[in-house]
Automatic annotation (TrEMBL), chains A, B:
This is TetR family transcriptional regulator. Keywords: DNA-binding. Residues 39-58 bind DNA. Residues 16-76 form the HTH tetR-type domain. Gene3D superfamilies: Tetracycline Repressor, domain 2. The lineage of its organism: Bacteria, Bacillati, Actinomycetota, Actinomycetes, Jiangellales. It holds the Pfam family TetR_C_24. It comes from Jiangella anatolica. PROSITE patterns: HTH_TETR_2.
DNA sequence: CCTACCGATCGGTAGG
DNA sequence: CCTACCGATCGGTAGG
């Protein structure tokens, strides 16, 4: 509560902080109870306001959900594009995609669960927006797998099913991963890229089995900055 | 509408049929809109009743959901136990588990989606019941994978992560599989068991890569009867 | 004219 | 299976 620095733009700063607190709290409620089961009164109570005050900062409950989902999807797409920059080899591209996907789903678990679970409550135009970003993201996976199959470095019964399998198993991280116990997100990312390469029966030009280490792409933890700032702790509110 | 046979137990038959129609309609609404977003008035309208009449057949909305989820989970467990009967080899056991899992999630898609999505709305005792059945089911997978790793026929970074990956990717079938287009459930099952064996880097005693065909377990379609009767078509109501 | 809210209540609908 | 309702709570907004 102590003010360490004078705040010249105090009003604006507080407005932003309050909006962020509302959004963070909404995310926590939506991702644990579900959007429909979360009342605006419950949200307002948790933030310590009346609903009338809440509506000073927020358009509607639906907008809150839409913003959360859109931002999460946009962040994933942008991070994936960043993680692929300068990488050409299909096996390396898949590894990078798995790494950024697992990192995003381990670090932004609540956002990922919400995107996964609440698509059906979106209105048609908001849904279209999210699905467009998702399609663009999936296209990155599709291309890498098809090219790997064409080059003969991947061998799968069906490229489309293999892609769905890898994406689905990696998305699962958001549902069962427990931070602060067991593997770090980066370790999990390597574990999963090894599983993905195995599933794809990835081999090098000489026909030898390929794993993540063989591709020498570095620690996936280096990709974390691509995801933007870390999710704020629930009640973090540092002066400045 | 024509009666082909006299019905001596007309009342009972109709009562059963109405309950089934309500349950089937509830399943369709829950699995597409979500439990919270489905109103009892909406359910009653779809079945062609008032809400009051609906409550003649049904305890509560929550009970309807609980029954659907419990039955689906019980069916999956029983089918898996049946599919494993007389199978000892870990690779063969995993293949059988993947087959029955994919079949169940392709054929009983709506039930599977509901179990997947609506766990959080269950009350503690109903939740415990479902989780107990799920734990017993997962234990079958755990044992097969651990034994395969011990025997040296599977090679994975981490047995627990590999199990979650395979189960999650197979469960995904319930969310994207379209019946009546592309592969049959049995074909999909073989596709997935090949992916699972690849992911586990399964080999035989001689160190050669193993696929589903090599295990000669027969067509997974033969396992379908283990799942019990097929889901009724939405409006099926045969005389007798 | 602004911001950051308040107490009270709106019209409708929820499950039962 | 219906009409007629209940206690409570829903998302959202009024004036100040």
């Amino acid at each position: 509560m102590t003010e360490l620095v004078p705040r010249r733009e105090g009003r604006k700063r507080n407005a932003a902080t309050t909006s962020e607190r509302i959004r963070r709290t909404a995310l926590e409620l939506f991702s644990t109870q579900g959007y429909e089961a979360t009342g605006i009164r419950e949200l307002a109570d948790r933030v310590g306001m009346t609903t009338a005050s809440l509506y000073h900062y927020v358009g509607t409950k639906a907008e809150l959900l839409t913003d959360i989902m859109r931002d999460a999807q946009a962040r994933l797409l942008a991070a994936a594009q960043g993680a692929l920059a300068g990488i050409d080899d299909p096996a390396a591209r898949i590894v990078r995609l798995v790494h950024i996907h697992v990192l995003a789903h381990a670090i932004f678990q609540l956002e990922a669960r919400t995107v996964d679970t609440e698509l059906r409550v979106l209105d048609p135009s908001a849904l279209q927006e999210i699905l467009d970003a998702r399609d663009e993201y999936e296209q990155l996976w599709r291309e890498a797998i098809v090219r790997g199959c064409d080059d003969g470095v991947f061998t799968v019964p069906d490229a489309s099913t293999a892609r769905l399998a890898i994406m689905t198993m990696s998305t699962g991280v958001a549902h069962w991963y427990k931070p602060n116990r067991g593997a770090s997100p980066a370790e999990l990312a390597v574990n999963f890229s090894d599983l993905a390469l195995a599933l794809l029966r990835a081999t090098d030009a000489a026909g030898r089995t390929v794993d993540t280490a063989a591709l020498a792409l570095g620690d996936p933890a280096e990709l974390i900055p691509l995801l933007g700032i870390a999710p704020p702790a629930s009640t973090a509110d540092a002066a400045r």
